[in-house]
């Protein structure tokens, strides 16, 4: 059954890549959501995993796998800059730059999403872009700690946008972020809209050498620990797996995350709470490849 699942998911992913139609927001061949509980039994939030193009799925904040210069690059970084328009690069150029660059490895910076909307310009994809620089390669010292810091820093920024007291505490601890928030408020010219949902790509994945099979436990443990410490603050956390060049890698990453999350719930003595948006049935192929 598992082999059937992987074969079907791989075929569907290839169809998604091949089709010229824009995928409907929120659609994916497989997309599952998991309810995470805080230690007191309250709902901390939801984790969603999906094989889908993150750049077409509306969210409050989209996370960019950036570099230390924060001015754009290849892969997801370049795609996000292209979608947001030149204003993103102009904004990031105003961020303070130190020895480690505008966004040192393991840290995060936040900007408006500017022109980030669907191709027909009818739907905003995101309000914010949170850029984080992940460790690269197999030999990076302390790469697990740095990767944890990427996800934690992005979530801290999201919480700081939503809760003024959280922001004050964060800026007290990390004074270098003060200029970032001043620029953000000046650019938006309004009270900062809340961040309730945040979308992550695979930070440091792919050509950057920290593959999902090595990083998924680090990422999920860090994110769940953050959610349990701050229940309900950022209550919709999403992980996207997508690769136009190597679709099987997206399928594999999805499987690593899915199996770990299922085991996590079982160890808690809870029933599996995943919700499948599309049934695991061959009929999804026609749904995915249909035009709007």
Task: Give a structural overview.
- By secondary structure, the chain is of the alpha/beta class.
- The chain has one domain (2-16, 27-289): 3-Layer(aba) Sandwich (Leucine Aminopeptidase, subunit E, domain 1), CATH 3.40.220.
- It has nine helices and seven strands, in the order αβββααββαααβαβαα.
- β6 (197-200), α7 and β7 (236-241) form a beta-alpha-beta unit.
- The two termini are 32 Å apart.
Summed up, what is this model?
By secondary structure, this protein is an alpha/beta fold.
In order across it, which strands form the biggest sheet? 1-2-7-6-3-5-4
Return residue spans where pLDDT drops below 50 for at least 5 consecutive residues. Answer: 9-28, 271-292
Number of domains: 1
Distance between the termini: 32 Å
CATH class: Alpha Beta
Strand percent estimate: 5-15%
Q: Could you say what the CATH architecture is?
A: 3-Layer(aba) Sandwich
CATH superfamily: Leucine Aminopeptidase, subunit E, domain 1
Query: What is the helical fraction, as a range of percent?
Result: 40-55%
Per the principal axes of the C-alpha atoms, what is the gross shape?
Answer: globular
Task: Calculate Rg over CA atoms.
Answer: 18 Å
The number of strands is 7
Characterize the main sheet.
Answer: 7 strands, mixed
**H/E series, N to C?**
HEEEHHEEHHHEHEHH
CATH topology-level name: Leucine Aminopeptidase, subunit E, domain 1
Overall structural class, as computed from helix and strand content, comes to alpha/beta
Average pLDDT value?
A: 82
- The number of distinct helices, counting runs of at least 4 residues, comes to 9
